[in-house]
Design a protein that fits this description.
Elements (H helix, E strand, L loop, with lengths): L8 E5 L2 E5 L5 H9 L6 E2 L3 E3 L3 H17 L4 E8 L8 H15 L4 E2 L6 E7 L3 E4 L3 E2 L11 E5 L5 H11 L3 E8 L6 H15 L6 E6 L1 H10 L5 H19 L4 E3 L12 H7 L7 E2 L7 H10 L3 H4 L6 H4 L11 H11 L2 H9 L2 E4 L1
Parallel strand pairs: 5-6, 5-7, 10-11, 10-13, 11-12, 13-14
Antiparallel strand pairs: 1-2, 3-9, 4-8, 7-8, 12-15
Organism: uncultured bacterium contig00077
Keywords: ATP-binding, Cytoplasm, Nucleotide-binding, RNA-binding, Thiamine biosynthesis, Transferase, tRNA-binding
GO molecular function, one term: tRNA-uracil-4 sulfurtransferase activity
């Protein structure tokens, strides 16, 4: 994630990660940290030698920043992993507060609801910082295994990928396109969405499958009202086969209960009925408003609403079935004999590293 900051160096200590970089690359580092799942927050930190005079002087400088930004109250929070420092944590707080009040007019101490907190950490050297920024939290990406996201060009699936990454899942993606029925611009849009999502997932491998022969077979031979559900069943089968090859433990979709015809509980049962791997649906109980808010937060919304039709939308029947029967769905699916076409699509995949 720090590839754009060539001079950055990462150092780890107990309870802390330190990123050292040239000042001109600090914005690149902050942008990366704002998308790093698994950290509670970060702050720009000043450092000095472990002398009382230098520490107090830096505390005063941090207090000046608080006043310049409009703050009126502050609090000192200190901790010492190096117990050889001559002041206790409590004494250090008192001395720092005293130094600030002596040097700066207009600032007051408020230990309950301060405008900002000046943190002092005494480690191998002294670290002083304020104005910390909240991180995304969650679990470190990769700590909860690997999943394969069915990525469309819409709003929902990038949000689903982000939410599963926030629970520690390393997310890869698969996309189905139907050129020439869908424009190449639609595929390029999905690649951009994969890059946006991948910024939170420590990168994404996007597998692109040409599903035109599969969709053509369904359109020619299946009852029109069943076409979307049967297409979703074929996508699920292809995605599961791909997941097994890349050692993913589950599929991830952006489905939300009853949002569209293919996402009623009956039709969800149909589309997942032939699978052995679990299907994770992190948006299943969310409304569109909540999904859009997350899409905007991760920077995917403007790209998601670009007017390029995906293959599911293109082949949507006028009157789709709403409550499909699993046995009937599987009988229709078997009659289409899609396995060879699916295997052909998998064999000809395009891989884009995002």
């Amino acid at each position: 994630m720090l590839s754009g900051a060539s001079g950055a160096k990462l150092k780890t200590t107990k309870g802390r990660f330190f990123v050292e970089c040239p000042s001109e690359q600090s914005q690149i580092v902050e942008n990366a940290l704002s998308r790093l799942i698994g950290i509670s927050g970060w702050a720009k930190t000043a450092t000095c030698q472990k002398t009382t005079e230098e520490v107090l002087a830096l505390c005063v400088e941090e207090a000046k920043k608080i006043k310049e930004s409009g703050g009126q109250t502050f609090k000192i929070d200190s901790r010492r992993t190096d117990k050889s420092f001559p002041l206790s944590s409590y004494d250090l707080c008192c001395r720092a507060g005293e130094a600030i009040l002596k040097e700066i007019d207009g600032l007051k101490v408020d230990i309950h609801k301060p405008d900002d907190v000046i943190h002092v950490e005494i480690r191998e050297k002294a670290y002083i910082y304020s104005g910390g920024k909240k991180g995304l939290g969650g679990l470190p990406v990769g700590s909860a295994g690997r999943g394969l996201l069915l990525l469309s060009g819409g709003i929902d699936s990038p949000v689903a990928g982000f939410l599963m990454a926030a629970r520690g899942m390393k997310t890869e993606a698969i996309h189905f396109h139907a050129y020439p029925y869908t424009a190449l611009e639609a595929k390029e849009k999905v690649i951009r969405l994969a890059r946006i999502t991948g910024a939170y997932c420590m990168g994404i491998h996007l597998y692109i499958l040409c599903f035109t022969p599969v969709q053509t077979r369904i359109k020619e031979k299946a009852p029109p009202e069943w076409s979307t559900v049967l297409l979703r069943m074929a996508m699920m089968e292809a995605a599961e086969k791909a997941a097994v090859k890349i050692k993913a433990k589950c599929l991830i979709t952006g489905e939300s209960l009853s949002q569209v015809a293919s996402q009623t509980i009956e039709n969800l049962n149909c589309t997942g009925s032939r699978l052995k791997l679990p299907v994770l649906r992190p948006l299943i109980g969310m409304d569109k408003e909540g999904i859009i808010k997350i899409s905007e937060k991760i920077g995917a919304f403007e790209t998601s609403i670009e007017p390029h039709t995906d293959c599911c939308t293109l082949f949507t029947p006028k009157h789709p079935i709403l409550r499909g029967d699993v046995e009937e769905a599987n009988a229709l699916y078997e009659s289409l004999e899609l396995q060879a076409l699916i295997d052909e699509a998998l064999a000809g995949y395009e891989l884009v590293k995002c």
